[in-house]
Amino acid sequence: MTALFALATSLLWGLADFGGGLLTRRTPALTVVVVSQSIAAAVLGVIVTVTGAWSEAGPRLWFAVAAGLVGPVALICFYKALALGPMGVVSPLGTLGVAVPVGVGLFLGERPGPAQFAGIGVAVVGVVLAGGPQLRGAPVQRRTILLTLVAAFGFGTVFALIAEASTTLTGLFLALFVQRLTNVAVGGAALYASVRKGAPALPADGFPWASLPALAFVGLADVAANGTYAVAARLGPVTVAAVLASLYPVVTALAARGFLSERLRTIQAAGAGLALVGTLLLATG
């Protein structure tokens, strides 16, 4: 069940990243983050009210608040790194954040078996290669590397925090709601500061109402991924759940191949294959 929920996390995050990437071609990235997360927060607010999840409020919610503070910062750094480029370096480096939850799991005493250790190594290499690392070309700016590593550390920290934010299903609903409210507050403040500096908040033709369903999908897929990851981390070793959940770049690459007819480079196809082998080792180990 850990493998099932963790792989569902990869699917949801991969599709959310794909959708978010398409939306940011026409709409500023900060606006995409704020609107999509606001929709997710509204839906979660209804769920929390209907299920009576407010009764689950407790000290663990601070983990959700922390995840909500770190997440938008990581996204902003990641988008800035992508803007500076090259994407072929930024994308695979961004997956290194998996080291954070894996390290936490090992520190807390988790000891995967030999097959799972092999699966972790193979899967991580596969994910990095599936991002299509750029092996030749112009040197990468030091600022780009720094922003990417900050983003990767942030993503990994969110993984670790959300796994500790609740112990029950209704508590998870409340934790995700608090995380989203914090996301919106931090993202909204960043958007306000950006507008004050003269950056546009909307496309030239106004709010993209036609994109509202896609914005809703991105926000809800992202929050669902956080939920399935939290469940996966509760059901089994965090070291296994985190690595399987980090396969989302493979999903994004395959979605681009299927919907945009983007061709996978040889190194990406090889990476996807290694990621699959690593997944099988983890699931059967």
Task: Output the structural class.
Answer: mainly alpha
Radius of gyration from CA coordinates? 18 Å
Give the quaternary arrangement of the chains.
single chain
What's the total helix number?
12
Mean pLDDT: 80
Tell how many strands the DSSP assignment holds: 0
Helix content: over 70%
Strand count, sense and barrel status of the largest sheet are: none
| Parts with pLDDT < 50 across at least 5 consecutive residues | none
Tell me the series of helices and strands, N- to C-terminal.
HHHHHHHHHHHH
Distance between the termini: 13 Å
The fraction of residues in strands falls at under 5%
Shape call: globular
Describe this structure in words.
- Helix 1 (2-23) runs antiparallel to helix 9 (212-235).
- It is globular, with a radius of gyration of 18 Å.
- The chain contains 12 helices and no strands.
- With 285 residues, it is mainly alpha-helical.
- Helices cover 75% and strands 0% of the residues.
- The two termini are 13 Å apart.
- It has helices at 2-23, 29-51, 61-84, 87-94, 99-107, 114-130, 142-162, 169-196, 212-235, 238-245, 248-259, 266-284.
Entry summary:
The chain has helices at 2-23, 29-51, 61-84, 87-94, 99-107, 114-130, 142-162, 169-196, 212-235, 238-245, 248-259, 266-284. The chain has 285 residues and is mostly helical.
